[in-house]
Amino acid sequence: MQAESPxxxxxxxxxRQLDAAAANRIxxxxxxxxxxxxxxxxxxxxxxxxxxxxxIAYADGGxxxxxxxxxxxxxxxxxxxxxxxxxxxxxLDGDDLVNIASFGFRGEAxxxxxxxxxxxVTSRAAGSAEAASVTVRGGVEGPARxxxxxxxxxxxxxxxxxxxxxxxxxxxxxxxxxxxxGEVVRRLAMTAPAVAFTLRDVSDPDAPRETLRLEAExxxxxxxxxxxxRAVLGPEFVENAVKVAAERDGVRLTGLAGLPSYSxxxxxxxxxxxxxxPVRDRLxxxxxxxxxxxxxxxxxxxxxxxxxxxxxxxxxxxxxxAKAEVRFREPGxxxxxxxxxxxxxxxxxxxxxxxxxxxxxxxxxxxxxRRPGPAMLAAARAWQAPARGFAEPGGAPIGLxxxxxxxxxPTFDTAPAADDMAAPLGAAxxxxxxxxxxxxxxxxxxxxxxxxxxxxxxxERLKAERAGGRAPSQMLLIPEVVEMxxxxxxxxxxxxxxxxxxxxxxxxxGPGAICLRETPAALGEVDGRRxxxxxxxxxxxxxxxxxxxxxxxLSRMACHGSVRAGRRMGHAEMDALLRAIEATxxxxxxxxxxxxxxxxxxxxxxxxxxxx
Length: 612
Hints:
Oligomer: single chain
């Protein structure tokens, strides 16, 4: 026996008009998904009302109580009842749905909340002698009553989803809902640095807890933004970010973008606004990723707080009930601006290392308990033994052996030039483990990974040569035949013409082999077999777009032309590498996203030894 589908009605039902209560509850399901959604709508209303101070309180993760108070324009008593009806708004000029310059404009938030909770709105408009209050219970609106309140609006939502208890089952724990509320408030606070925000948890009325306080920021656009982002995202982001300000064809991009070396393990620090409206837009997220694609590892994510400003008619903000998504009239223009502006800002930032790497390195210095061996104990006894007799003139005391003089090391320099120490990366002082350069600056030291740094230098040189046309190449005296699997051979042969423009000249050489005739001059002497294997792997990764695939190939090629760990360098060569790093854009990270150098301040080093 075939079971009937639960989606097939047993009988036809007549079409009927939904009553207002049902329609409002359906609208609430689209607009108010959880307590954080209600907070978002109410705070946006407060910002639209010109508020300069907004206070938010919640109880039990917003399920029992949400209270939002502001000092904005307020609602006249004669319009208060109308504000609680569907599709009533003061934010649209007639039927113009294009030029929208406010957060909310649908006129659904308040009536939707009134349909699924107990809602009370108390407001006093500027110039009014007294305030008025209206209460909605179960979708039924009560009469307006006089109330006492200063200018502004107070909205209280009690028992969210009390009228639809099934929705309560889908809410998360009080703690999770409270965290979501905090995230919404912080995102909105970043769009309005001049507005003060206070967030309180009043689950225990006798002991309310303030979870967030943001004072109004002053100063120009970037001063206010930096101050607010410092309070919301933390000082580390601001210290490791560059200023972004660009405009093209009427579209503006402003904000702060993190250094490539200041990356995150997830895309949790990416904040976009469009005309001041927080959004989660795939186009903007993709453009941000594209701007950093060859500056950090694939499993790392950039941090940024950026605003796209453009005429209201050039963007549709009415494509989602919660207004979380937008649609641009010219998406290519916006994407190109974001990528170009970010790359230019990062290139102009000069040589900067993320402060988090230095802090992490200092944190790695921990005293270890080590048991001394026999040799160490013997040496200690020899140095600690009391002197017997008199010291010989110019010599060690009798009974003590003078410590042996250190053997000269050609990789150490004892007199760095003052001019070099004033440079961003200082003057080379030593090379340790034939892999790391120690440089001295005027206020600290810098540790450079010689292979990672030179890899970035070669990569940027290859990109510059590609942009200028065909990259210079060097012909092999004897062409090298490299055997590869059929798939790798096919990928390399298919891109032979493109590889030629990069200075890599190859041609098929029978089944399962490639003949290598020329290599890029920037690489010097390379292992052809390993080079072609890496190029084939880069082509197999399937990066999106021709440019991204070429960059992936260049990145693999650059690794073969860079200074390897294990190579001893002279002082002049080390200094030349430091100066080249300073003159090369994006040199803070290698092609794979690893830091090329770490800076330590002298004050931090002194703290390690208890001098501060």
